[in-house]
Automatic annotation (TrEMBL):
It comes from Halomonas litopenaei. It comes from the Bacteria. This is Histidine triad protein. The lineage of its organism: Bacteria, Pseudomonadati, Pseudomonadota, Gammaproteobacteria, Oceanospirillales. Residues 36-105 form the HIT domain. Gene3D superfamilies: HIT-like. InterPro entries: HIT-like, HIT-like_sf, HIT_Hint.
Amino acid sequence: MSDFVVDPRLVADSYPITELPLCQLRLMDDARYPWLMLIPRRAEVSEVYDLSEQDQQQLWREATRIGKALKAYASGDKLNIASLGNMVAQLHIHVIVRHQGDPAWPGPVWGQGQATPYDKDSLAATKDRILALAGGLSFKG
């Protein structure tokens, strides 16, 4: 949609990876966690119920398929999928792979310590791996 714009706060905290059928896939700038974000490319959407039923199904399909692949790739112990929106109202879904013993385990990642930004080389390599991971998935019903 031409009037879809990503909230500047989400842009500041993440890097674009690719466009899925519904969502823009972004990598959160915190190398402590395998952490992706899905942002439905729909204008002025703040809640899941603001999406059509078809888009709701597609959102869940994209979140679960990318999450399953990321968890397998990162050899994670738990997959967290969450939509909070308290700080940024624009609908966005966090897809985070957790490991027992990670810096925030077993609590939530939000507000725990300082983010570890990606350096230039690890960012490029991580983006390439996530793009390859997403490219190997089917996001259709």
